[in-house]
Write a structure and sequence with these properties.
- It comes from Gracilibacillus thailandensis.
- Residues 1-24 form the signal peptide.
- The protein is of the alpha+beta class and 286 residues long.
- It has 2 domains: 51-186, Intracellular proteinase inhibitor BsuPI (Immunoglobulin-like, Sandwich); 194-286, Immunoglobulin-like.
- The chain is built from 3 helices and 18 strands.
- A 4-stranded antiparallel β-sheet has the order 6-3-9-10, covered by helices on one side. It has a 4-stranded antiparallel β-sheet with strand order 5-4-8-11, with no helix packed on it. Strands 15-14-17-18 form a 4-stranded antiparallel β-sheet, with no helix packed on it.
- The longest helix is centred in the first third of the chain and has 28 residues, at 2-29.
Length: 286
């Protein structure tokens, strides 16, 4: 009996050894390459960010090309009135974001000497200011400067700049909304002897209304409009009645195709013998 059990034990051991050997052999002979089933996102192209930045820059540039900034500066006695106007000629709305209450800057200078700077000595709120312009809409900014010290008569440069930090959510680099014009400063005391006073201008793009006062004691007075090269309105009598100082209103209508592409539209008020003349700037074309 013991021999019988011994034989059975030996057979079982052999069977177990055979199974173990088969598993090892199967494991060793399995040369298949493991498959990595993990999912990896394909890396973005290195220049993807550059392309996106370039696209945004081009979009902003296209918007800027259709933002029309017009500026004007006019002396009235001892006061200089500055005006800025931004017209949205884009087909979509444009949102302007300013980082403070200062939305524009104005400098009046001659050569390297600055005689007036709008922001000098002023405190501005630090709150964000937003302005939105629908297609075809415009916004005006205005400022006046009472000359504490009379400037010497002559020509001066006026630099006017809008200061949005962002346009349609895109950062604005530099100062692309800037215009520089020339203003001729006259002796304010000379205006006291002039037959024309309190002259004011409203309007744009060829449609203007000029108001003021004229001393009829000097006789018949006239006006004409020119752009420095051509007469846009020929000599016309100023419509007034009565004696002494009388108010007048002149309405001017000029076809847009006659307006200069660059330069100023100027009205000249004058007496019949042209001994007294008063130039009035109607509009500056960029």
């Amino acid at each position: 009996m013991k021999k019988y059990f011994s034989l059975i034990s030996i057979i079982l051991m052999l069977l177990l050894m055979a199974c173990g050997s088969s598993d090892v052999e199967e494991t060793e002979t399995d040369d298949s390459v493991p498959v990595d089933n993990s999912t990896e996102e394909s890396p973005e192209p290195e220049n993807a960010n550059e392309e996106e930045t370039q696209s945004e820059t081009e979009a902003l540039s296209a918007i800027m090309e259709n933002l029309d900034l017009k500026v004007a500066a006019e002396q009235q006695g001892t006061t200089i009135n500055f005006k800025l106007q931004l017209i949205n000629k884009n087909e979509e709305a444009v949102d302007l974001m300013f980082t403070s209450g200062q939305q524009f800057e104005i400098k009046l200078f001659q050569e390297d000497e600055v005689f007036y700077q709008y922001s000098e000595g002023k405190m501005f709120t630090e709150a964000l200011v937003e302005e939105s312009l629908a297609p075809g809409e415009f916004k005006n900014w205005a400022e006046s400067w009472d000359m504490i010290e009379h400037l010497e008569p002559g020509e001066y440069e006026v630099e006017m700049t809008l200061l949005p930090a962002e346009i349609n959510g895109q950062q604005v680099e530099g100062e692309p909304l800037k215009q520089t014009i020339t203003i001729t400063i006259e002796d304010p005391a000379a205006d006291e002897d002039s037959p024309f006073r309190s002259v004011d201008v409203e309007g744009e793009n060829g449609e203007y209304t000029v108001t003021g006062e004229v001393d009829t004691s000097v006789g018949v007075t006239y006006y004409e409009v020119e752009d420095g090269h051509n007469y846009l309105v020929e000599q016309t009598e100023i419509p007034v009645e009565g004696d002494g100082w009388q108010e007048f209103e002149i309405k001017i209508s000029i076809d847009e195709d006659m307006l200069p592409q660059n330069g100023a539209v100027v009205m000249l008020l004058y007496t019949e013998d042209r001994s007294e003349q008063r130039p009035v700037q109607l509009e500056v074309m960029p």
